[in-house]
Amino acid sequence: MHKVELSYLLTPQRGKTALIRNPLMDMLHAVREQGSISGAAKAMALSYRNVWGALKNWEQTLGRSLIVWDKGQRAQLTEFGEKLLWAERQAQARLAPQIEALTSDIERAFSTAFDDEAHVLTLYASHDAALSALREQTSPHGLHLDIRFMGSVDAIAALNAGRCMMAGFHTLDQPDSHSVAAKTYRSLLKPGLHKLIGFAHRQQGLMVAKNNPLGIAGLGDLAQAGLRYVNRAEGTGTRVLLDELLARAGMQPSDIQGYASQEPSHTAVAQAIASNAADAGLGIEAAAREKGLGFVPLVQERYHLVCLKSELPTPPVQALLKQLQSRDWKTTLDALPGYSGERAQSGQVLSLRANLPWWSYRKPKNQ
User: CATH classification of 121-355, choosing from 3.40.630.30, 3.20.20.150, 3.40.50.2300, 3.40.190.290?
Assistant: First the structure.
């Protein structure tokens, strides 16, 4: 059975004929109406050679004859050619409402591209519940966020490679200049090249089963025998955070059963615990509450957005800053479990050196 592929055109106005156009059907219809290849070519404003060659190519592709090619006789369609036209008319008539609805949906989507007041901002970011809420809040205001969730390291690398306009990552509220985060992000972010933007202040902790049946109270309890931990992928901000907390506690990854396991998001970790495939995992409170899990708070984090300095004055970035600074956004953050709108510094352009204090250009005095 031959397959069907659909395509569309962008035009100032719609045609008044078939809802979905197909060049083969147009040619067959013209040949039947005009009775000759030359007549069909004239009606379609094409050359004879163009129409003749196209029909021959279609016959070869479909493996069937379309035209009765008898010299001196009026051109007519073969039975197969007539059946093709019949089938196309049936499909057009039967699917007209769906085709009309699909066309309207595509037109509405493209209307954004032709609206000078609308903006699209591509954002690669570490998974976060607040980003999904932001996307819903900005869309009615003409700012459409094209968000792709990935690890923090990959997100910033994509920003530096020019694949997105902004990246999202997170660090401890008070990061240390010799921390795992410093080692991870120092080579990716540079003062003078990047601009840091406040986005959200949130709590990370251990997601556990409802009512915390294992009595997990802190990071050290992850080492208890038989406890199954579920981890995030290497390169994600939460994996960096876990390694940071383990180092502070004097623990090793080998102390935790399940350290090598990987899930792509906070939601996926929560689902693994909710389905009893794991007992604990590091994540945000919002994901735990969504799945009806218990939550053991551990640390406060700042979720940052970052863009190149050259992009800061562009309309999409300025539109985003305006939305982040709004009272509505603060209210949205406060409504999310584990988030604080008051401490978020949302929409503020921040100093990289002050908020990520691991750049130092001074040599020690003894050198």
Answer: 3.40.190.290
